[in-house]
């Protein structure tokens, strides 16, 4: 059985789709999978079971990237195509069954819309797939030495979604004052722009582990899985943290938590006051973030007992 799964160009949306993929993996244990996604998201599927190919869709003028996808897929008879991009490409392929999500943004949680495509209620939670080597490397970077590793994600894909850097520092120092075993891990994406956004936090937390922005998506997932807590802006990193199952606090102001709240068993949001989806991040209060983080950690500890 051959399944074609067309998912997002953006990392966060692609992460939200992994729960649906995991459902299909269990539903069709003899199937192989071809993933079509954007280059930024491609690494997310590197260790997915039964993935035979990832087709990276690079946007081209006049939607020619869809023609490219058709050319690469036309030689296969697909038993099932799941298309989260709302395209018509599968109608020009040999496909047994199609599940096509309507394009465009809609009210309500993105993960719910994804689950509705296969009539799944509740929607399946995102997952991550990492290799044994990545998990071993993560254990070396974040050893079991008594530290409680706190991951901070102070960057995002545009500046309007970013909480002021000094407030990340204040939150961490406040949490560590009550728990000296806490140590910071600073996560950010590749490139100088991302590093520049993280630089203030790194400068003010000199004992932090600087992950350098050069790790693959799945290497970061392996690191996150060893952390006690993630606090970060609405970003792909936030969704990745929630997908690993660790306590995750997502910070929202200029984006809608009602659509893109982190999805995971221990995920919470803190929203800046103001118009929904257009509230300045500067209005988000440090005390609210600290309280949310402490309550989340306490809930998680109680659940372990």
Automatic annotation (TrEMBL):
Keywords from the named record: Glycosyltransferase, Transferase
Single biological process term from Gene Ontology: lipopolysaccharide core region biosynthetic process
Record bears the keyword Glycosyltransferase: yes
UniProt-recorded Gene Ontology molecular function terms: ADP-heptose-lipopolysaccharide heptosyltransferase activity
Entry-linked InterPro entries: Glyco_trans_9, LPS_LOS_Heptosyltrfase
A Gene Ontology cellular-component term: cytosol
Domain of life: Bacteria
The name this protein goes by in its record: Glycosyltransferase family 9 protein
